[in-house]
Each structure stands twice: as C-alpha cells, then as structure tokens.
Amino acid sequence: MDKRVIRWKLNEIMAQKRVRNKDLAEGIGITETSVYRLRKTDTMPRMSPERLNDICQFLDCQPGDLLIYIPDNDAERAEKNQQKLSKGIAIAKHQLPKTDKEATEDIAA
C-alpha cells in the first residue's frame, strides 16, 4: 500500500520569520498553548479554513509554504534517518570528554 504523507512546516516557517508563539497567538486570537501544539506537530493538523487563512495572513505566506508532500517510502526513510540521528546524539552525549570539575571529582572519589 502506497501511503502519502503531508508534513506540516509551521515550526520551520515561524523560525525563519522569527515569530514567537506569543506573537502568533495574539495575532490570530488563540492561546499560546494552541500555537505550541500547532507548531510541534509534523502532520497537517485539522483546522478550519479561517484559521489557516489567519496563520497565512499573519506570517505573510501561502498555505503551500506550510505544507510539504512526502511519498510514504521517503517518509519512512526520513523517519529511520531521524531515529539514527537521535540514537547517535544520545550515544555522543555519553562519550563527551569530562570537564575539569568532573575529572577532579572522579579523582577525589
């Protein structure tokens, strides 16, 4: 089965335009928590055409700027790469060299 994915890019657009959650919330008349939820999801959220219009008007963008179409096999590949990256970051954190303070504490113990 060939499933399609539409990815939501509000977080990226807000970062590019340096718009804070608070600013967008006040500009379109919703709570900061609602903006946070809209921003942190990767899939297209359900929303009214009016809400999408408000977001686009405030950010001075087109609806297409907020969306990207990714075929399922590309989405799976991207997800696997993200998992590998996350795992690599977690491993790297454990392999960081000790600071002078941590090394001194180890010697003292």
Characterise this structure:
This protein has 109 residues and is mostly helical. It has one domain (4-108): lambda repressor-like DNA-binding domains (434 Repressor (Amino-terminal Domain)). The protein is built from 6 helices and 2 strands; from the N terminus they run βααααβαα. Strands 1-2 form a two-stranded antiparallel ribbon. Helix 2 (21-28) crosses helix 3. The radius of gyration is 20 Å and the shape is flat. The termini are far apart. 6% of the residues are buried. The mean pLDDT is 81.
- The third-level CATH topology is 434 Repressor (Amino-terminal Domain)
Helicity level, as a percent range?
A: 55-70%
Q: Can you tell me the residue ranges where pLDDT is under 50 for at least 5 consecutive residues?
A: none
Count of domains: 1
How many angstroms does the end-to-end distance come to?
Answer: 58 Å
- Computed over alpha carbons, the radius of gyration is 20 Å
Order of H and E elements: EHHHHEHH
Mean pLDDT: 81
Note the main sheet: 2 strands, antiparallel
Overall form: flat
| Name given to the CATH architecture | Orthogonal Bundle
- The share of residues in extended strands comes to 5-15%
CATH superfamily: lambda repressor-like DNA-binding domains
Question: How do the strands of the widest beta sheet line up side by side?
Answer: 1-2
- Class inferred from helices and paired strands: mainly alpha
Number of helices: 6
* CATH domain class name: Mainly Alpha
* DSSP strand count: 2
